[in-house]
Design brief:
The protein is α+β, with helices and mostly antiparallel strands. The chain has helices at residues 3-9, 14-19, 25-64, 142-154, 156-192, 199-209, 211-222, 230-247, and strands spanning 69-72, 75-78, 84-88, 91-95, 110-114, 118-123, 126-131, 140-141. The chain has 2 domains: 3-46 and 159-247, no CATH class; 74-135, no CATH class. Helix 3 runs antiparallel to helix 4, helix 3 runs parallel beside helix 7 (211-222) and helix 7 packs antiparallel against helix 8. The longest helix has 40 residues, at 25-64. The radius of gyration is 27 Å and the shape is elongated. The chain starts with a helix and ends in a 10-residue tail after the last helix.
Length: 257
């Protein structure tokens, strides 16, 4: 039976999933990697869309709204004295050649401030400051920034691929750890239900019990729907599916007296 057939049957048939306990461990590992890949797809698409929107906004703002400027001797110089503020798609851009601090507050978690003596970036609420004095031996102009943004945009597919790989590895690691830990609790459940299952078999069954919650949360992420108590809902759903699978395993026969 192929992995995709197992994926399909794992959405509705505890009886078929119970039979998977006899398969080789290698196939179960491949199945976990498949689940991790499916969980990674909507996350990667969302991050890619955010990056694309932010760089598009930055490019448009620099081209049409920011006056000519240069950064020389650790200081931003521009003919315009008025700040430029742009807020769109949960991203804030500020160009202020007179300010040395981010005096313009924003509720967005992602921001970029180009100020008189520094650049301040805010990513997911985490702020980083870069002083021009750190590279005062270099002169930077508006055209240099435009060329850099254009270069980053050409690297967009590669950046998304790299981000996707890291997300996949992270999801795979978390899934393996979760299955390994929850399988210990599965041994207690199988004992209470009088089913003879060793740890390896329970590890396999737990992997397949992750199918429904993984697909569910994959769809929720794709639709940008936030589910409260994500972790608890996932664990509860996985254990409920495991319970249904164990029910399909023949019980231990009592010895005749």
């Amino acid at each position: 039976m192929s992995l995709f057939t197992q994926l399909y049957k794992s959405l509705y048939s505890p009886k078929d999933m119970a039979r998977f306990r006899f398969q080789k461990i290698g196939k179960t590992i491949l199945y976990i990697l498949l689940l991790s890949l499916l969980a990674t797809i909507p996350e990667t698409i969302q991050i890619g869309n955010i990056m694309k929107q932010q760089f598009s906004l930055l490019d448009q703002t620099i081209d049409s709204e920011i006056p000519n400027f240069s950064i020389e001797n650790g200081e931003l110089k521009s003919d315009s004295q008025e700040p430029v503020v742009k807020e769109e798609n949960n991203f804030t851009f500020v160009f202020d050649p007179n300010a040395t601090e981010s005096t313009i507050s924003s509720s967005n978690l992602n921001s970029l401030y180009i100020l008189k003596d520094r650049i301040i970036t805010v990513s997911s609420g985490q702020e980083q400051t870069y002083l021009y004095s750190s590279f005062k031996e270099f002169a930077i102009s508006k055209k240099d920034i435009q060329d850099f943004v254009a270069f980053i945009q050409t690297m967009y597919p590669i950046a998304i691929f790299v981000i996707g790989v890291f997300l996949f590895l992270f999801n795979a690691f978390i899934t393996f750890v979760g299955i390994t830990l929850l399988s210990f609790a599965g041994t207690v459940l199988s004992s209470q239900m009088s089913r003879k299952l060793n740890y390896r078999q329970l590890w396999t069954l737990m992997a397949y019990s992750f199918t429904i919650p993984t697909i569910f949360f994959m769809i929720m992420k794709a639709l940008n729907i936030v589910v409260a108590f994500h972790l608890f809902v996932f664990i509860f759903a996985a254990f409920f599916v495991l319970y249904l699978i164990i029910k399909e395993v023949p019980p231990i026969k009592e010895k005749a007296s």
